[in-house]
Specification:
Order of helices and strands: EEEHEHEHEHHEHEHEHEH
Helix content: 25-40%
Number of helices: 9
Distance between the termini: 13 Å
Shape: globular
Radius of gyration: 17 Å
Strand order of the largest sheet: 3-4-5-6-7-8-9-10
Largest sheet: 8 strands, parallel, barrel
């Protein structure tokens, strides 16, 4: 097992949010009903295991239906946990329901990062503007600390850069460019660099190409960890051994 937590050299400030997040983000879809289907206790124990080893950043979504596991983790560990969640809502009513569900089921007074799920471009962002306006008001009330989007598209990254209130971007990026819907790896790199120049916080997803690149894990890690602009990388984990392995890779340990 890993002794101690992540070293202080691999915590980054997430853009203009002021949130100091671990370079390794716990991607929690793997333990949700859609995939691993761990019980809340099992999922909570796994997340808490990562928290005790220094992972203070977790990615989830309304769709994942795993808030109970995350709540359990915060009962099992007193370490800090910065939570980013997502919804597909485009109207105020839906966004309100999703936010209140997260606050209630996580038993939190605020959500660290609330994101619009799988945005494609400035056009889809504008199509969700009623929801965004509601979330901006909730941020002003202190119920949300930062807003953002997740995206599989280069144009999604550029679109978020046009909206000052969207401080965080969660784009797909990996060494082969797998899953990028409207361009190449190089196109996404340029978009990420541009977003970083605009002060956006960025944490990448699917660095193993949805599992298709797992046989080249070391190469994938080296690429993602050396890519300028990524404050953190979200990786799905479902065993303590995976958590230890990923921490070692992020720390560049054998």
């Amino acid at each position: 097992p890993i002794e101690g937590g992540l070293c202080s050299l691999i915590y980054n400030i997430l853009g203009t949010t002021g949130l100091k997040v671990s370079k390794l983000c716990f991607g929690s879809l793997t333990l949700a009903p859609l995939q691993g289907n761990l019980s809340p206790k099992e999922g909570g124990q796994l997340i808490a295991y990562g928290m005790e080893r220094g992972i203070n950043f977790l990615d989830t979504a309304t769709l994942y239906d795993n808030y109970a596991s995350i709540k359990k983790a915060m009962e099992f560990s007193d370490k800090e946990l910065i939570i980013s969640t997502k919804s597909y809502d485009y109207e105020e009513k839906g966004a309100q329901k999703s936010l209140h569900k997260a606050l209630r089921e996580l038993d939190r007074d605020y959500i660290d990062i609330f994101m619009l799920h799988e945005q494609e471009s400035i056009h889809t962002i504008r199509g969700h503007w009623e929801a965004i306006e509601y979330l901006i008001k909730e941020k002003q009330k202190g119920n949300i600390r930062a807003l953002g989007i997740s995206t599989h598209r280069v144009e999604g990254v550029y679109g978020a850069c046009e909206i000052e209130e969207l401080e965080v971007i969660h784009p797909i990026i990996n060494i082969k460019g797998l899953g990028i819907e409207d361009g190449t790896r190089e196109d996404m790199e340029k978009a990420i660099f541009y977003a970083k120049s605009k002060g956006k916080g960025i944490y990448g997803m699917k660095i193993f190409g949805g599992g298709n690149l797992s046989s080249n894990a070391e190469e994938c890690f080296q690429y993602a960890l050396n890519l300028e602009g990524l404050d953190s990388i979200a990786i799905g984990m479902i065993t303590p051994e995976e958590i230890d392995y990923n921490i070692r890779r992020v720390l560049n340990l054998n």
